[in-house]
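Lab meeting, action items carried over

1. Structure of the two-component assembly. Owner: GW. Status: complete.
Input record:
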Amino acid sequence: MRNTIGKVAVVATSVALLAACSSGTTTEEASSTPEASASETSSAIDATGLTLTIWVDENRQPAVEAAAAAFEEETGATVELVQKNFDDLRADFLAQVPTGEGPDITIGAHDWLGAFVTDGVVNTVDLGANASSFSQVAVDAVTYDGQVYGMPYSTEAIALIQNTDLVGEDAPATWDDMIKAGKDSGAKYPFCINTNGATGDGYTMYPFQTSFGAPVFVQEGGSYTSEVGMGGDAGEAFATWLGENGEKGTGLISTTIDYATNNELFNSGKCAFTVQGPWALGDYADVNFKVNPVPSAGGETAAPFVGVQAFYVSSQSENALLANTFLTNYIATPDAMQALYDADPRLPAYEGVDTSSAAFPEAIEGFQASADQGVPMPSIPEMGSVWDYWNAAESKIIKGADPVKTWNKMITDLTAALEG
Amino acid sequence: MSTDTEAHAPAPHKEAHARSWQGLGWGFIVKLLLMMVINALGVAAIMSAWNAEAWAILAALVLFLVVADWVYFSKRFLPLKYVYPGLVFLLVFQVFAMGYTAYVATTNYGAGHNGTKQQAVDAALIQAEREVEGSATYPLAVVRDGDTIGFAIGDEGVVKVGTEEQPLQEVGGSLDDSGKPTSVDGWEVVPIGDLLSDQALAKEVTDLRVPVSEDANDGSLRTREGSTAKIYRSSLVWDPDADTLTDTDSGVVYSPNDRGTFVGDDGSSLPTGWYVGVGLENFSKAVSDPDYAKPLLRITAWTFAFAFLTVATSFLLGLFFALIFNDDRVRGQKTLRTLFILPYTFISFLTALVWRGMLNAEFGIINDWFFFGADIDWLGDPWLARLSVIMVNLWLGYPYWFLICTGALQSLSSETMEAAKIDGAGRWRQFRSITFPLLLVSTAPLAIASFAFNFNNFNIIFMLTDGGPNFDDTSVPLGATDLLITAIYQISGVQGGRADYGLASALSIVVFVVVGIVSALAFRQTKKLEEI
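Predicted assembly:
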């Protein structure tokens, strides 16, 4: 008898709960159908009950929040901002979109695009009525195989940063000029460059590499092929130069310098010149500096990698219409782009953004000049395999390994890895 | 206690508290409330699984919930009432995780094979649909006639309407100033608000393609945000019955192969694939690939050496300090012990980063303070890097053993020690024959656990050396301090974005088996200790 009571009680509670929950669901469904929203006469947009999920990083959150607030107010849709570590976005987006758990929109770097396309997780976007306001290099960067997959909002590139108290404001024309100026200034280190410790940093070294005419991949009509382009004479010349200036040579480039050490040395005035990106400026509070394009070491233009940040729409989004509305009408606008810039002053990818709100408006101009002579970082998926080989080889050469031999072995191993 | 009670009050029909209605019946009510919460959570989870259409999870949830109700409201299964929660956790967190890893290990899940076949088809169609060059942007209104959805555009002052079947044609209607149709004869204009608020309708609209003319090659209108349209043209056609994608420009027919890729009859393939089972291929890949086999052998040897040396050095150092500070003659024992435990309380990966800086050859304080500023390349030389890793891990690990050994020493019976003293055993003899063996009984299982942990000690390697310095004589980017677990991370490309989760899972299983065997053998040895 007691037993029966117990069972009945459980069943009854469960049913009650079921009813409660399911009625909750019905209300939700009802509100998302046009009948219930019942605004047949009014033309105000009512997307009540629909949720647009956007992944952002910490820096972008306030700016996207502002755009989302306007969107929510005008459409009634809910925007759910999920804050993630920028470095986690790529892997999480790749893993979660196919399961249906991914967001409708994510921010991301343009060099993730190749992986996103081969894994089928992004949809194409239309830049909308303001398409012509986006900078060409940014649009090129988010274009893959002739299709635009992202809405760019900022670009970034590394540049030469010089201590104006030591070496003045004039940009050195060549590597030799720079080293001479650095030495004449009496600084302990004429030049510092981050090698990420013993790991190696092909990214920061890249302007010098391109000045020898050795791009990481062969370029064909603006887009990269998967053919490794840094072999041959040009690559060997760069490797030799790297060895000559490494620990067993002039010692100007050393694997003891990592990001923090580099910034510490420059900020304490021990370094006359360094190569860094806009993200490091906050660490240079104690010195007067000026930002210039990187000087050439090998005779050709020293072209740094240009990175672009963009919004991507998931290929599995259930709210594609809402997501595109948000991007074209609430992000691709001068106000939203200005807010994005104010939140994190990187070079804007949108014309007409007022850059004076940055902490270092002049520095932004310098980085812009550097980016103008830069090349987009390859977004082909093969790039993911390059870093480990490339960084390690540079690190070894700087440490004093035979430059040409080490470099050529890296090219062979890398080519084999890309084919296999 | 309980036997005592039962002996004094032999009640034949004594009920458990949880069934009891005696008194206020609190026992039963508490159980009922708890089960109500569990049922509520369970039903909520089941419904969300239903909404997500995750049938396997739904079945498992229903099974767990039914069994839970059965177990706790039935008179039988008394032991299960205690075991069941643990059993559920075991199934979910151990058995399922292992089973899923094993499943992934037999697939090619990874970059390029990231989703299902349908998603690969979707992606191929997305990639093949391109804007027709020079297409204007047309102001658009979505129109409806009963269940039929169509697009109405304003084209140079003229209203045109079309549907999926019916190409665009001129009809009567009116446009507003921006050229957008406001009324269309024979059609009802759908307000943009209705469009955005109705997910199903919105999806229908984004999927709709309205041909601009009878000739399919002219392309069709599509809209992304519901208020403008452009002309697009797709070069791929999906035939679900034949299971093929056909390129209408080149005539190439792409059909699926058993590796989860669409391959064309001209030998080309589409970039996006899906994951399929590949059997045990992932397991053989690591050993059969000569590029990997040799470095992996060296890495395996170093992994064993690292795990063993870490446990041995930190155990001995911890024991040494424990013995010294266990002596009553030491003053301020408590303070000193607290200080000793400090390194153990720091977060290990932060510690590793700090040590990385301190070991820097040029700027690190280790060289500056202890080696007269000599440029000793602690992390750049293979053997020095290995030494550094072990030293840093020793610094991190010995407080743990200090703690354990102090506890174990204090629990040793003083009578045994007295007896040994009376028998005339010296200090060393006491330690060797009595203290140490007795200590091992309680600490050996912990040492085995510590070995297993350090065997997979990803943090310290990743943060301190990142596996470097790299081997000079191999063609793969692996290094002298790489452990198996960091090598797996490297090989499977999880970091670089060329991820191969299938291979990573297969290698993790191999490591799991190795650690399992070593631990099992070691535990068997510790049984002998207990016989002392």
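2. GW to write a short summary for the group page. Key points so far: The two ends of chain B are 33 Å apart (CA to CA). Residues 15-105 of chain B form one domain.
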